[in-house]
Amino acid sequence: MGAFGTHTMWTEVGMELKRTVKFEADRDPEFARWISHTVGGERIRQCLQCGLCSGSCPLSLYMDYTPRRLMHLSREGFKEEVLSSSSIWLCTACYACMVECPKKINVTHLMYALKQRAIEEGFYPKRFPIPVMAQQFSRMVRRSGRITESWLVVRVFLRSAILRLLGMSKLGLRLFLAGRMNVRKERIERRQEIVALLDSVAATRKELAL
Amino acid sequence: MKYTYYPGCSLRGTGRAYEESLLAVFRALDIELEELEDWNCCGATTYLSVDELTSYALAARNLALAEREHRDVIAPCAACYLVLNKTQRYMHDYPDIKLVVTRALAAIGLTCEDHVRVRHPLDILLHEVGLKTIAEKVKIPLKGLKVAPYYGCQIVRPYATFDDQHNPTSMDRLLEACGAKIVYYPLKTRCCGGSQKGTLPEIGLDLIHYLLSEAQKNGAEVIATVCPLCQFNLECFQKEAGNHPPISMPVLYFTQLMALALGASAKTIGLQRSLVSIAPVLAKKEIAYA
Fold it and tell me: pLDDT tens-digit profile of A19-77?
């Protein structure tokens, strides 16, 4: 590969330049293999690049790579571009793409897979609330078996954006007065079953390297 | 008729009015609901994004508990409905997932043979009860109240077979049977942003903005929803959604409107829990309710 990576560089005359065409050598074949073997990715190599996923996606107008481009980049192994893309965090899992896809590629599920992989490999903006929310959510489920929304919101914002919690306190108060914010935590009777269930999943996953 | 009822966590929190009105509708139609004993969180969409195997196991505990009752399950929350259905699908399609889930259930003495059907109240009301019966039981017709029916994402997509995925009409027909007038609302299945309002607020608000302005433009007096998160997003951020002037429109669960028509009193169906009250609209229409 020449002097240019796919990152931006400043030339001696102070002009910002970037190689925008990707080379074979930029690819990560392991990533391409992984995506086509992950749940939902079985048919990704059949993608026609028709763009129905991007066209039906309500978030694609805010994305750096639309779902169609993301599918192509993933199956070709452009791992860094894919995992650092904002698109995987914009996806709300509305399933519009999956319903439209003529090749029945499970685009929504692949977005989930990419989210997981991006979290595992540390590709997300600092103080980004999604991983924090997921972490607090799973802790609460393990402890109580159910989610108490009011406590979840407080915990997430305490760990990611304290100032926004203050900004939302007025709404919180109105909801509380309407009886829509629980102070008492919801919990199930047989909480030990949840712990045993979660531990078993972790053990099987380890054993089978899933 | 008797069904197993899976409320889900939201119906015990921000979506309390959904549960209250749903129970009122089913009571009025003489359908018995029995709450699933010791149900747990379905895992929702949050869990799916970090740890899908665990989310299937959580959902499967509920399915396994429900199987012992040998009745169809009613899941009113969009996320629960999707996750429970998805878990059944994936256990069927992917042997690895089935193995992990089966072992996890065995650890707590349960089995899941995949013979419960997880259904949505829209499906039950339309196909089991029927429009004719509902129309006959209406005590307080909604007198042409203009409703924008908002289905959101996860009810009809991707697994529902009871309605059309592009242009669902089950809620339209149920509310029409109660005397409401359905306004043209082409964004009825467009996403509200879900939890995006919490994680990337600028984007979430933008989606909410379009849904509200479209409803107003088409003359709606109230938006009817089927999902606790949609209801929350559309009702609670009307000031922030960037409409000029800000839109102030009641956003109710479809079951609240139905329960009202079936003669339930406002208090028992959680109308007082709304942040934007529907009382002025009902007064204008001269709909006298209990």
Answer: 878 888 889 999 999 999 998 899 999 999 999 999 999 999 999 999 999 999 999 99
Q: How far is A159 from chain B (nearest CA, A)?
A: 13
ipTM score here? 0.90
In this structure, what token pair is assigned to residue B271? 């109308």
Last residue within a domain, chosen from A86, A120, A154: A120
Residue of chain A whose alpha carbon sits nearest to that of B236? A171
Q: Is B9 on the interface with A (CB under 8 A)?
A: yes
Q: What is the CATH number of the domain that holds B55?
A: 1.20.1050.140
Q: Given CB atoms, is B31 within the 8 Å cutoff of chain A?
A: no
- Would you call A197 and B236 a contact, using CB atoms and an 8 Å cutoff? no
Asked if A156 and B154 come within 8 Å (Cβ–Cβ), the reply is no
Predicted pLDDT of residue B284: 95
Q: Which of B88, B119, B150 is the last residue of a domain?
A: B119
pLDDT per position as a tens digit, A92-113 = 999 999 999 999 999 999 999 9
Last residue of a domain, one of A73, A88, A120: A120
Among A14, A1, A114, CA closest to B48: A114
Q: Which of B45, B49, B83, B93 is the mutation pick for testing A, counting most A CBs within 10 A?
A: B49
Model-level pTM?
A: 0.92
Looking at the structure of chain A, the number of domains it has is 2
Q: How far is CA A90 from the centre of its chain?
A: 8
Q: CA-CA distance, B241 to B219, in Å (whole number)? A: 19
Going A63 to A69 to A74 to A80, the CA torsion angle's sign is: negative
